[in-house]
TrEMBL record:
GO terms for cellular component: cytosolic large ribosomal subunit. GO terms for molecular function: mRNA binding; structural constituent of ribosome. This is 60S ribosomal protein L16. It comes from Penicillium frequentans. The keyword Ribonucleoprotein applies.
Length: 203
């Protein structure tokens, strides 16, 4: 994100939750609009059992009055967990922070509007570059959301497989159209004058 774009799409697969959240928070405060997809593939450092204990201890924290009304609200979906991590790094109760949070959108899987844009990834924030080779990590879709009551952990994977099938079919159609165009161009009998005129119009 060295250049300022209208909207930046980030693929969350393989990134560490906290490191990606800090990078996203800084760019949001700078005015960048960001969409993070495949939040279920984000990783958290540490062993699975340790993450489970920490998250269940977090779920037990509540207010002295009715927690269903006053909170705190503990999110189970991976996208909302990432959203709350970013929110904790932004002064979201100020006007500047609230405007920054409005520039962020998070999704499980890859929804249709974002498939038309190429998603970015940051190797310096990935598990393979940041963590030690023997370090343990756990995907966010498995730990701790499934153990904490998230009922739709398998749905993003199902939708992702459907998206891949449609994407492959579109790519095959695109290759066939390019082959047909190349064949038509090679077999066309066009004189040099016509080619010059077509080149002037961008063809």
């Amino acid at each position: 994100m060295s250049t300022f774009d209208s909207v930046v799409v980030i693929d969350g697969k393989g990134h560490l939750l906290g490191r990606l959240a800090s990078t996203v928070a800084k760019q949001l405060l700078n005015g960048q609009k960001i969409v993070v997809v495949r939040c279920e593939a984000l990783n958290i450092s540490g062993e699975f059992f340790r993450a489970k204990l920490k998250y269940h201890a977090y779920l037990r924290k509540m207010t002295r009055f009715n927690p269903t009304r006053g909170g705190p609200f503990h999110f189970r979906a991976p996208s909302r967990i990432f959203y709350k991590a970013v929110r904790g790094m932004i002064p979201h109760k100020t006007a500047r922070g609230a405007a920054a949070m409005e520039r962020l959108k998070v999704f499980e899987g890859v929804p249709l509007p974002t498939t038309r844009r190429s998603a970015l990834s940051f190797p310096r924030l990935s598990v393979s570059c940041v963590s030690a080779p023997a370090a343990s990590t756990a995907p966010l879709a498995v730990s701790p959301t499934r153990l904490a009551g998230s009922t739709r952990t398998s749905l993003p994977g199902t939708l992702e497989e459907r998206r891949k099938v449609k994407s492959n079919a579109y790519y095959e159609r695109k290759k066939a159209a390019r082959r047909s165009l190349a064949k038509a161009e090679s077999g066309a009998n066009v004189d040099s004058k016509t080619k010059t005129q077509l080149a002037e119009y961008g063809y």
